[in-house]
Amino acid sequence: QCSAHCPVGAIYEKDDTKKVWNALQDPKKHVVVQIAPAVRVALGEAFGLEPGTIVTGKIYAALRRLGFDAIFDTNFAADLTIMEEATEFVHRFTKGEELPLITSCCPSWVDYLEKYFGDMIPHFSTAKSPQMMMASMIKTYYAQKKGIDPKDIFSISIMPCTSKKYEITRDEHMFSTGQQDLDVSITTREFSRMIKQAGIDFLNLSDEEPDNPLGMYSGAGTIFGATGGVMEAALRTAYNMVTGEELGTVEFEQVRGLEGIKAAEIDIKGTKVKVAVAHQMGNIETVLKQIQAAQKAGEEVPFHFIEVMACRGGCIAGGGQPYGATDERRKKRIAGIYKDDEGQKIRCSHQNPYIKALYDEFLEKPGSHKAHELLHTKYVDRPIYQR
Ligand code: SF4
Question: Which of 163, 165, 224 to mutate to test the pocket of ligand 1 (most atoms within 8 A of CB)?
Fold first, then answer.
C-alpha cells in the first residue's frame, strides 16, 4: 500500500502481470492458474460489489476468457495442507512429541519466526503452504497425469498477499522439481487489473466450474482465508483421525472472530486439546512469549496447537487485496468465507474425493515419504536482528 502514500512516488507496487500476459501468449506453454481462498470474497469490490460477495464462479469464467489452459483452486491444496498438518499434529500429540505445533502457511510469519524466534523452529509445522503444495502437485502429479513435461508448464497463483511473491523463491526446499515450482504470483489487485485490461464484463459472466483433479474443495479448504480457519479445518480432520468418527457439528465457533488472541480447550472424546489462534504480529509475540516462559520454568506449555497469521483478520485482509481494509470490511469478507463453507456439500478435507484419489494414485498416505519430499519444507534460523 506504500505506493498510494509515498510522497514522491519512489515506492511503487511490484506488478507481475506482464509475465502472465507473456505466458498466455506463448503457444509452447501450458499455463496453469490457482486462486487462493480469500480472493473470492474480495475481488468483487474492484467491480463495485459489496465486500464478502462470493465471486468464485465468475473468477473461473474470467480465467477461461483470459486463456488459461487449466484452472485450479488453492482451496483444494488447503485441504491437502490439512491432511498433512493434522497428521503431524495427531502424531506429535499422541506420541508425546514436541508441542505446541505452530502453523506455517503465512510466509510473513515464517520470515519473522526465522529472524526473531529461531529457537522455536522445532515447533513449526513442516507442511508447505497451500500455494506451494498446489504448485508442487501441478508440476508432478498433474504433469504426470497429462503427460506434460513440467518444464513446459507455466504456473501462476492469484493471492491476497504480497509476501507470496517472496515465498515462491524462498529456497530450494520449496522446489520439488529441481526448479521453481511456481513461476509467478500475482495479487487480487493485479488480477482485477488484468480482467479490466482484457475488457471482460466481469459482473455479467455466468458462473463456471474449476478443472480437476486439483479444483474441487471442501468447506474446510475455503475457511483458510479467515483467522481461525486453518485451526478449525485442522480440528475437523484431526477429530476424525483420532476417533475414526465424523463430527456432528463441524463449526468451532471458539476460534472465529476478530479478537487478537483466541484460546480454546477442545474436547476430542475425553481428550482435551488446548489451542490458540493469533493474528497481527503483536498478538503473535504475546503467545510465543507465554510458550517460552513456560518452557523456561519447566512447566507444561499452555497450548498444544497454535494458528498464526500476520495480517489482522487473516488473508481476507492481506496486502494484495483491494485497498481500504477496515474492521467492518474484514467482518463482511469473513462472513463471505463462512457462507462459502456452509454452501459446500463436503465440509471436511479428509472427505474430499479428489484428495483421496491423490493419495491413492500418487502420494500413498498422509505423512508418507513421498508426501514429505513434495509437500514439506525446512526452516533456517536467521538471527539477522538482535534478539
Ligand atoms: Fe499473506 Fe497476510 Fe495471509 Fe500471511 S496472513 S499469508 S501475510 S495475506
Answer: 163
